């Protein structure tokens, strides 16, 4: 089976004035279907840049990006946009809901964009909001929602098109512990249903939810560990370091 | 299709979130388009009734007045297709309800001719069975209040009274409308004319020439002048008739066009500013849209559609309003489709171009939503450093710094306010020019406020009665005659008024007043027509007698498109000068013309014909309405700019403000900071606009005066007090508008982290 996402010697160098600032320096990463990968690292380690490049929000300087067995780093900005509609869902730290649109419209937008009829989009939105326990907030403006609720809406929006890959950039970075727990539980639930997730975080407790933790430092992978849970799950966990 | 649906959701949501500014944009564009359509309609010939009348009556292009029946065949001139007449015509006076109006009684056959046939609007044409019937030209009939069947009492030159009956009222393109064009026109059967005026020498003959090519009228009439020599009385062409019918519409149209075009620039700026500001405010949303899968082009298109649609809605609204106003005022057929379509298409292009750039920039938003859209890091501007140096309160220093952090929007805001303010100043200048017409009529050649025609009395008796009145300061005898200009196949007006030694105080703005016989002053229109300058000698022909005068000055001349030569009565040949046909009465300061008129009528037992001078400002009073409407539209544009500026300022500085609050700025200081940031640009823009407007307004009005023939020298800048009050009101209103969002921002709890 093909990897959902793969990078080969991926490099990103920001040109800030005359000084080149390397953000990502030769990252080889492979994400298998159904995997939940947490990308950890201190501030400035390039983890957000990596995820942005995986979703085509940022261009790579050199190296290769493969999604679903196809090479995508050579795509134009527009082709990336089309690809994102079908295959990639994004969740951001600051939720990034469209402020002027209701919660319902925010969730319907990606479905409409990918060509679903208004009726289908509405059905999908209803089931998503119901699953995330937000049905009664459908007509509210994002500003009327709490941070946790907004992030749940953002998650619903990201999942609206059943993307192959869900990219989450510090999804709990702006939430209190209770909302963090709620959002993580949801992420765990969709992962259990087979959703492939790449999540950026600098919080070890959040990362512990993942199958695998990739640590970045100064733009390079310094550690790539798989967390193996015993299926019975009764007597603790064993961390298997590769 | 898929993006259409998703996009329209977004556009709808966004528009709902900013109903007020959106409505403002629509209204501003609508106002401008309406002004432009009104202007074009007024400027376009469509409103000029001449075209329709000329077509209906199959009018003649050239009209020739001769002493006797023309001895030569005018129809034989090259380019003449058909001739009308010659018809015999006699001058008479119509006595109606105590009024006396000059009229030309023209003999026409009972079967209307093929060319230049009056079109009967009411009643019937002349009938040999009713020889006392008369058909009156429509504008003349309206002016006299005549209806079908009404008696039409005329006094012939020999003093004989005849009563005819109005059988018909007809449209004609033979001459301009009464009273702008005198004498009024009435048609009778030849037998009747012979009865009214048996003496051939007291009448003249009128011939109309219809040409193959209207442009040849100049050449043809010159040929006629040469052929007829001394027999010729005067000539005019269709151009003079058309010009006299269009009258004040042109001035109004020019004014509207000026305001419309500059207003369009201002509106485009406001639109670009609003769209640009909105895009800056939405960068995060746009990035989010892109992260969801909108392409660059789609985002740009979305923005173009959203902001463009507002502009197009405004255009549609303006087109309907403009068309409606014009149709209501001038009739539904007055609005020509071509120019309106051109305006709609042109403004649509301007609108799309104005929003195109911000839309394109919005499309290029990087799709990473986290990227902060911070203003360029503002180091203290020179102005802010100065503010710091003179120890202004901190809020003012910060506000001064904020005003210029984004240079382009700051410029657009100031400029966007300056343009409407400039136009408002110009509007006020036009207003004060009209006011000065009113308060100083002598500056537009209306030193005399009453004109007395002897009527039933002897001229000398009329003069005596006028001079006896206590409120009459001076009496100037006068006569208006038509003169033929050399090389110009048309007549010009020669106004002889007062003596050369004691001249009527014409408002001479260039050169000097005439001081002796053989000197004259001219209006700008005449100088342009003859191609002469002050100091030149001109030779005209008045009824066969040469009139040679030196033009020593230029006077402001609101009559006859400025094509008037003014001189002393003694410069005219005696046969033309004696007796004077009217007396111009200058009144004592403060005297009421109506009261004096009543007294003079009483003194003369209604024998005198006394008319009050019509101030040009009265004819132009509709301009005041237009100015008020335009100021309202311009204020809307300014307001739209202002809202954009203050919204942008708020957005740019919301984050800083949170920090400043944390550092200890009170809400009042925060508010002051925000208001200063916008207010500084407001003051700059409004100040610059007022200065620019005040410095060009006099020249602009004089330019209009020059082209319309009145001549330069009428323009007045708005008075300093008016201008100061306007500036203060504008700045005050702008600051009040800026205060509302600033207050809200100052009170709001801005979390430091939220971006």
Automatic annotation (TrEMBL), chain A:
<dbReference type="GO" id="GO:0022857">
    <property type="term" value="F:transmembrane transporter activity"/>
</dbReference>
<keyword id="KW-0067">ATP-binding</keyword>
<dbReference type="GO" id="GO:0016887">
    <property type="term" value="F:ATP hydrolysis activity"/>
</dbReference>
<dbReference type="Pfam" id="PF00005">
    <property type="entry name" value="ABC_tran"/>
</dbReference>
<dbReference type="GO" id="GO:0098796">
    <property type="term" value="C:membrane protein complex"/>
</dbReference>
<dbReference type="InterPro" id="IPR003439">
    <property type="entry name" value="ABC_transporter-like_ATP-bd"/>
</dbReference>
<dbReference type="InterPro" id="IPR003593">
    <property type="entry name" value="AAA+_ATPase"/>
</dbReference>
<dbReference type="GO" id="GO:0005524">
    <property type="term" value="F:ATP binding"/>
</dbReference>
<dbReference type="InterPro" id="IPR017871">
    <property type="entry name" value="ABC_transporter-like_CS"/>
</dbReference>
<dbReference type="InterPro" id="IPR017911">
    <property type="entry name" value="MacB-like_ATP-bd"/>
</dbReference>
<dbReference type="GO" id="GO:0005886">
    <property type="term" value="C:plasma membrane"/>
</dbReference>
<keyword id="KW-0813">Transport</keyword>
<dbReference type="InterPro" id="IPR027417">
    <property type="entry name" value="P-loop_NTPase"/>
</dbReference>
<protein>
    <submittedName>
        <fullName>ABC transporter ATP-binding protein</fullName>
    </submittedName>
</protein>
<keyword id="KW-0547">Nucleotide-binding</keyword>
<dbReference type="InterPro" id="IPR015854">
    <property type="entry name" value="ABC_transpr_LolD-like"/>
</dbReference>
<feature type="domain" description="ABC transporter">
    <location>
        <begin position="5"/>
        <end position="241"/>
    </location>
</feature>
Automatic annotation (TrEMBL), chain B:
<feature type="transmembrane region" description="Helical">
    <location>
        <begin position="251"/>
        <end position="272"/>
    </location>
</feature>
<keyword id="KW-1133">Transmembrane helix</keyword>
<feature type="transmembrane region" description="Helical">
    <location>
        <begin position="625"/>
        <end position="650"/>
    </location>
</feature>
<dbReference type="InterPro" id="IPR003838">
    <property type="entry name" value="ABC3_permease_C"/>
</dbReference>
<feature type="transmembrane region" description="Helical">
    <location>
        <begin position="309"/>
        <end position="328"/>
    </location>
</feature>
<dbReference type="GO" id="GO:0098797">
    <property type="term" value="C:plasma membrane protein complex"/>
</dbReference>
<comment type="similarity">
    <text>Belongs to the ABC-4 integral membrane protein family. LolC/E subfamily.</text>
</comment>
<dbReference type="GO" id="GO:0044874">
    <property type="term" value="P:lipoprotein localization to outer membrane"/>
</dbReference>
<feature type="transmembrane region" description="Helical">
    <location>
        <begin position="721"/>
        <end position="740"/>
    </location>
</feature>
<keyword id="KW-0472">Membrane</keyword>
<feature type="transmembrane region" description="Helical">
    <location>
        <begin position="340"/>
        <end position="360"/>
    </location>
</feature>
<keyword id="KW-1003">Cell membrane</keyword>
<dbReference type="InterPro" id="IPR051447">
    <property type="entry name" value="Lipoprotein-release_system"/>
</dbReference>
<feature type="transmembrane region" description="Helical">
    <location>
        <begin position="20"/>
        <end position="43"/>
    </location>
</feature>
<dbReference type="Pfam" id="PF02687">
    <property type="entry name" value="FtsX"/>
</dbReference>
<feature type="transmembrane region" description="Helical">
    <location>
        <begin position="410"/>
        <end position="431"/>
    </location>
</feature>
<feature type="domain" description="ABC3 transporter permease C-terminal">
    <location>
        <begin position="629"/>
        <end position="749"/>
    </location>
</feature>
<feature type="domain" description="ABC3 transporter permease C-terminal">
    <location>
        <begin position="258"/>
        <end position="367"/>
    </location>
</feature>
<keyword id="KW-0812">Transmembrane</keyword>
<feature type="transmembrane region" description="Helical">
    <location>
        <begin position="671"/>
        <end position="701"/>
    </location>
</feature>
<protein>
    <submittedName>
        <fullName>ABC transporter permease</fullName>
    </submittedName>
</protein>
């Amino acid at each position: 089976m093909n990897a959902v996402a793969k990078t080969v010697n991926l490099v990103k160098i920001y040109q800030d004035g005359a000084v080149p600032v390397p953000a990502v320096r030769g990252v080889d990463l492979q994400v298998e279907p159904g995997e939940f990968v947490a990308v950890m690292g201190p501030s400035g380690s390039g983890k957000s840049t990596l995820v942005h490049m995986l979703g085509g929000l940022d261009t790579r300087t050199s190296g290769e990006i493969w999604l679903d067995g196809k090479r995508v780093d050579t795509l134009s900005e527009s082709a990336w946009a089309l690809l994102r509609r079908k295959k990639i869902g994004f969740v951001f730290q600051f939720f990034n809901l469209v402020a002027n649109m209701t919660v319902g419209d925010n969730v319907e937008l990606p479905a409409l964009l990918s060509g679903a009829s208004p009726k289908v989009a509405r059905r999908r939105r209803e089931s998503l909001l119901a699953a995330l326990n937000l049905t009664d907030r459908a007509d509210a403006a994002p500003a009327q929602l709490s941070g946790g609720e907004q992030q749940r809406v953002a998650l619903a929006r990201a999942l609206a098109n059943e993307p192959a890959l869900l990219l989450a950039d510090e999804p709990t970075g702006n939430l209190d512990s209770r909302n963090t727990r709620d959002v993580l539980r949801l992420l765990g639930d969709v992962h259990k249903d087979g959703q492939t997730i790449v999540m950026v975080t600098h919080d070890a407790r959040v990362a512990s939810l993942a199958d695998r933790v990739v640590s970045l430092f100064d733009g390079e992978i310094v550690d790539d560990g798989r967390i193996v849970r015993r299926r019975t799950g009764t007597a603790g966990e064993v961390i298997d370091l590769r | 299709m898929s993006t259409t649906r998703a996009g329209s959701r977004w556009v709808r949501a966004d528009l709902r979130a900013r109903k007020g500014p959106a409505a403002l944009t629509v209204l501003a564009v609508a106002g401008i388009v309406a002004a432009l359509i009104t202007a074009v309609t007024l400027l376009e010939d469509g409103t000029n009734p001449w075209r329709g009348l000329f077509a209906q009556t199959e009018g003649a292009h050239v009209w020739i007045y001769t002493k006797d029946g023309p001895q030569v065949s005018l129809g034989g001139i090259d380019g003449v297709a058909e001739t009308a007449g010659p018809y015999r015509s006699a001058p008479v006076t119509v006595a109606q309800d105590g009024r006396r109006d000059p009229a030309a009684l023209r003999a026409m056959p009972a079967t209307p001719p093929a060319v230049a046939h009056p079109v009967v609007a009411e009643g019937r044409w002349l009938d040999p069975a009713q020889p006392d019937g008369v058909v009156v030209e429509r504008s003349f009939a309206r002016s006299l209040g005549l209806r079908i069947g009404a008696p039409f009492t005329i006094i012939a030159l020999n003093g004989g009274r005849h009563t005819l009956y109005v059988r018909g009222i007809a449209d004609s393109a033979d001459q301009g409308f009464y009273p702008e064009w005198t004498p009024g026109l009435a048609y009778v059967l030849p037998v009747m004319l012979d009865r009214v005026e048996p003496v051939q020498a007291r009448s003249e003959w009128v011939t109309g020439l219809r040409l193959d090519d209207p442009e040849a009228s100049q050449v043809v009439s010159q040929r006629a002048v040469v052929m007829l020599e001394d027999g010729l009385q005067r000539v005019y062409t269709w151009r003079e008739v058309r010009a006299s019918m269009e009258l004040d519409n042109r001035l109004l149209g020019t004014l509207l066009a000026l305001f419309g075009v500059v207003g369009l620039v201002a509106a485009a700026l406001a639109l670009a500013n609003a769209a640009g500001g909105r895009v800056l405010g939405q960068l995060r949303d746009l990035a989010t849209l892109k992260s969801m899968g909108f392409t660059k082009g789609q985002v740009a298109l979305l923005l173009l559609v959203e902001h463009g649609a507002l502009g197009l809605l405004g255009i549609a609204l303006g087109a309907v309003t403009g068309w409606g106003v014009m149709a209501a005022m001038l009739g539904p057929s007055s609005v020509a489709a071509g120019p309106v379509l051109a305006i709609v298409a042109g403004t649509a292009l301007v609108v799309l171009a104005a929003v195109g750039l911000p839309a394109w920039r919005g499309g290029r938003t990087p799709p990473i939503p986290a990227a902060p859209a911070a203003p360029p890091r503002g180091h203290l501007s020179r102005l802010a450093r100065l503010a710091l140096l003179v120890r202004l309160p901190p809020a003012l220093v910060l506000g001064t710094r904020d005003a210029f952090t984004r240079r382009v929007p700051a410029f657009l805001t100031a400029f966007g306010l300056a343009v409407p303010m400039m136009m408002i100043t110009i509007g006020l200048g036009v207003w004060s020019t009209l006011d000065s017409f009113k308060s100083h009529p002598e500056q537009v050649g209306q030193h005399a406020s009453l004109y007395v025609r002897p009527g039933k009395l002897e001229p000398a008796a009329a003069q005596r009665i006028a001079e006896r009145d206590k409120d009459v300061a001076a009496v100037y005898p006068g006569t208006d005659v038509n003169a033929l200009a050399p090389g110009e196949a048309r007549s010009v007006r020669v106004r002889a008024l007062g003596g050369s030694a004691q001249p009527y105080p014409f408002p001479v703005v260039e050169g000097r007043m005439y001081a002796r016989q053989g000197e004259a002053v001219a209006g700008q229109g005449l100088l342009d027509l003859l191609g002469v300058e002050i100091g030149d000698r001109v030779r005209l022909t008045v009824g066969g007698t040469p009139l040679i005068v030196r033009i020593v000055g230029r006077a402001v001349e609101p009559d006859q498109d400025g094509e008037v030569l003014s001189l002393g009565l003694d410069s005219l040949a005696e046969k033309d000068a004696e007796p004077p046909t009217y007396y111009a009465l200058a009144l004592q300061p403060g005297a009421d013309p109506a009261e004096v008129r009543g007294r003079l009528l009483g003194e003369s037992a209604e024998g005198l014909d006394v008319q009050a001078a019509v101030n040009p400002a009265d004819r132009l009073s509709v301009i005041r309405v237009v100015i008020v409407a335009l100021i309202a539209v311009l204020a809307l544009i300014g307001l739209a700019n202002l809202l954009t500026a203050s919204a942008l300022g708020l957005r740019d500085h919301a984050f800083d403000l949170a920090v400043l609050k944390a550092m200890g700025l009170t809400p009042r200081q925060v508010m002051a900071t925000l208001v200063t940031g916008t207010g500084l640009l407001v003051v700059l823009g409004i100040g610059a606009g007022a200065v620019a407007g005040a410095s060009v307004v006099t020249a602009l009005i004089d330019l209009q005066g020059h082209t319309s023939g009145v001549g330069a020298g009428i323009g007045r800048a708005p008075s300093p007090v008016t201008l100061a009050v306007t500036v203060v009101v504008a700045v005050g209103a702008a600051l009040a508008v800026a205060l509302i969002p600033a207050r809200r921002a100052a009170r709001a709890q801005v979390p430091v982290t939220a971006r």
